[in-house]
Amino acid sequence: MRLNYEVLLRGINKTLFATADDELRPVMNGIFIELTDNSLTFVASDAHNLFVTAGTTLSPKPMLLLFCLKKPASLLKNILPKETNDILVEFDDKKRHI
Q1: pTM over 0.85
Q2: Distance (Å) of CA 35 to CA 22, 54, 57
Q3: In a 10 Å sphere around its CB, with 0-12 CB exposed, 13-18 middle and 19+ buried, how is residue 68 labelled?
Q4: Of residues 34, 22, 47, 7, the one with CA closest to residue 96
C-alpha cells in the first residue's frame, strides 16, 4: 500500500505530541492509524486528552488499521521530510504495526 509522505508526516506531526510515556499503559504510547478508501485518520491520547486528525470523508469500512509506537513514529517524523515519493507500507501476517 502506498501513502503520500506529506499526508503521513502531517498526521504524525499533529498527534505525536499527544502520546504518553506510561510504561504501564503501552496502548497510550503510540498513534492509532485508520486508512479507508477516502481518508486517513490519526488518533493519540495521553490518557487525559484525545487528539484526532482526519480527512473530510470517512468510509464505514476500514482498509487498514494499525498502531505505530511512539519511537518509530518519531523516527518517521525525522525521515519523512527528506522524502519526495510515496511511502510503501507493507506488513507480514503476524504483525500489524509499522
Answers
A1: no
A2: 26, 10, 11
A3: buried
A4: 34
